[in-house]
Request: fold
Amino acid sequence: MIVPAYFDFDFFWSVLWPPWHSPFLAAAVLVLVMTVVAQTTGVLLGFPLALGRTSRNRLVRLPVDFYLWLFRGTPLLLQILFWYDGLSELTGNPKYLYPITRNALVAGTLALALNEAAYMTEIIRAGLQAIDPGQFDAARALGMRQRQVMLRIVIPQALRIIVPPTFNEYINMSKNTSLLSVIAVAELLDTAQAYFAVNFRYFEALSLAAVYYLAITSLLTAIQRRIEARFGERRDIPMPAMLPFWRRAIGLAGPMR
Amino acid sequence: MKRSIPIVLALATGLLAACGGSPSPAGSGSAAKVSPPPNTELLTDGTLSIGSDIEYPPQESYKLGTKIPEGFDVDLGNAIASRMGLQADWINTTFDGIIPGLTAKHYDVIISAMTITDVRQKTVDFVPYFRAGESFVVTKNSSRHPTKIEDLCGLHVAVEKGTAEQDEATGLNASGGACASNQVKIDAFDVDTEALNQLKKGTVDVHFTDSPVAAYEIKKDSSLKLSGGIIEIAPEGIGIRKGDTAMLTPVQQAFKSLEDDGTYDSILKKWGLSDGDIRKSS
Reply:
């Protein structure tokens, strides 16, 4: 091998700075938008699905179970190709499906959101089920209706458990958008590939994408800290499950005051 | 991979040749002149590992429903390996990662319909073996009729990642390029067949690909046609690590012997690619 090894700093720096005209900045904005849209959709779908999953009615529970089995049981990459390519093949690609089958951005974001909804369902279900059943009973005993019990008692407490993993999901989502490079969505990885396809500077182009990914995940992490400080678990009040068994056994389960 | 008898035989041949210095001219009757195995470290003893993006018919693709590669490049690569006293092993890889794969020694050589370009020649040495151009594939009822590369301005074009076609389309969009003010919308995909699929779905106006691939596509699917003729005719080469003459020379010799005894012609003919004969001048 007589190819000299070097880091092409001129190329790296000319694309990195100034960022205003860099395709990477446009790609990073796209990644952020896709992350927020797909993940928020996933969260919003996750709530009704979680309620369905914990329902006592089989007719409600079974379709939700099927949804989770399907979307958690197949790879995300497969699902992306399914919405973009598989769907058109199956349906003969009618006009009303063009917004999905001919638009990689829509098909890709849809795939990310529907997949994420399955994971959010489990996170939200775990949050709801972690609330002590005694809380339901106490609220009912105070004369609250089912709706009030959920909105005033259960969900506020469950949010403390749901928020931290949900924000992790936002961060994961920002990285999962890179999978959309296979359907030529101009996100960060696709942008890097477009560079090294032409100039063969793989390390530099991938480093540029990495810089922007780190900027995005750092931003999301900073937001996560702030939100957790408001919504998340309060460390000064021990959770019932964290108390020793003997204290719960003799009824000293509540927060000590 | 299981070590089958041919590999063991090839290994033995390789060892004999390595020990005995220059190999004696073929002793067994009609066998053609055999070039020596490369005096270089092979990825696997007795095996010529060939990196290829095996989704590019008719030059390389998997026989439907199998993991057996077939195509013009495959027949040629197998023939070259056997002239070198080696067994060919085909290693599938994406095209946009095929050159770093060679540098990182994931395989010994590249045979993957790779056009010889100046940029590639900075990291790869080539043994030219085929001539191919580029073509525009459109749907039969399309109103788009690009015939030259500048006609792509303002069109939505599907290409494969890392190809000369992507390079050229990107160049049109650069400042000073022909499409600087009316940009080509380029969608680049990991495999060329996915780029073709976008044309069939109607996502893009044009699939911009190598001429042998385009010819094969329109033969297979009557809803597609070529727009214009073949442009940018250029040689394709077998890729070898830059400066690795211990590999380059035997591959050159092996290819030469295939040219001389007519094997090259019969492989071209088998795949209907005689127009791409490297010995023809433009």
